[in-house]
Specification:
The chain is mainly alpha-helical. Helices cover 73% and strands 0% of the residues. The protein is elongated.
């Protein structure tokens, strides 16, 4: 087995979970905003989850929370998990 084999599969799973949760959050905000004006504050949690990328992308995308977290946050988690898995596998297969 090669040391980096399968790292993208785990990263794709993490990115898939991230995008599903972001879409569910967007759905919740759209439904809850009809009754509560503070429903948009749920995006603050995503700011912590996707930090530091969310902080930078928020300003680049002019405050569009969904785009910042759905596009750039999902890519962030894909690459972050891929790098972490590669590091662990490289350490495990090191002679």
């Amino acid at each position: 087995m090669k040391p980096f084999e399968g790292s993208y599969r785990i990263a794709a799973a993490a990115a898939g979970v991230h995008i599903v949760l972001v879409v569910l959050t967007a759905w919740y905000v759209s439904v809850a905003s009809q009754t509560s004006g503070q429903a948009v504050l749920v995006w603050i949690y995503w700011g912590a989850i996707d930090f530091p990328i969310s902080f930078l992308s928020y300003f680049l995308l002019n405050g569009h929370f969904f785009l910042a977290h759905a596009l750039i946050g999902t890519l962030w988690w894909f690459f972050l998990v891929a790098i972490i898995v590669r590091i662990f596998k490289a350490m495990r297969f090191r002679d």
